[in-house]
């Protein structure tokens, strides 16, 4: 598959163009804590994931 075959259709304000597939890991960082003698785990929100362009 050539690079031209991997291009995707896109548009901005009605103007069509082609782009390469791009993904950014986005979301939240979480840590789950489990303790002895407890039935429920504790989930801690550590904030947004650091943006790392690929």
Automatic annotation (TrEMBL):
InterPro entries given in the database record: DNA_circ_N
Region (Disordered): 14-54
Ranges of compositional bias, category Basic and acidic residues: 28-47
Domain DNA circulation N-terminal: 7-50
Identification of the protein by name: DNA circularization N-terminal domain-containing protein
Organism, as annotated: Escherichia coli
Native organism taxonomy: Bacteria, Pseudomonadati, Pseudomonadota, Gammaproteobacteria, Enterobacterales
